[in-house]
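Structure tokens
________________
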Amino acid sequence: MNTLESVLNDPPASTPHSELRRGALAALPVLLGFIPLALVLGAQASQHQLKAGEVALMTGLNFGGGSEFAAIELWTSPPALLVIVAMTLLVNSRHLLMGATLAPHLRHLPLKKALGALFFMCDESWAMGLADARQRGGFSLPYFMGVSLCLWTTWVSFSTLGVLLGPLLGDLHSYGLDMAFAAIFLVLLKGMWKGVHAALPWLFSLITAGLFFLMIPGGWYVLAGTLAGLLSAYLWAKP
């Protein structure tokens, strides 16, 4: 009888397919913020005479919203490629820290699979994957990939659609849709909250990035905030 009750009461065992589906479902609310951001990016790209195929290639291979917005802002005819590449590397430098935090969870994978998972990583999937790992006591790669693939597909599809609809949409910034990215990430940070002590590096990183943004032109505030967060995390780490 006890065995029968345990079978009836225990939840079904997780499978890679069910975890992939769970990640895809968890990503749905985030997509509501991704869609307007992707449309804004595509609309801006159309104003710089970029074609739909070119934007699809850029967003599909890079998948870093901040660096893509920076690249579009710097786009000229002919484009200053070295400046754009340098700014993209600078803005995406935060991925070094993000990838390092995922490394212990991917250590058991072959290098090709680990690099494939990191290729689809973005700020939101990184945060959701780690938050889920803390809640469930372990990192689920299928869940992470379910989130990542949904976000990647949405980002590429709607940024490309934004190019086609750009002339009709006008200036989407007037609607405040460009704040969707910041709002999403603030909500995700709430799920990673572990107390004031653990959040001190966040505060130090925010202050440093804000000061650099106000005083030094360009995207140096991203690198400065990343390094400040790393340094403060090391100094405030518990023994």
Notes: DSSP finds twelve helices and no strands in the chain.
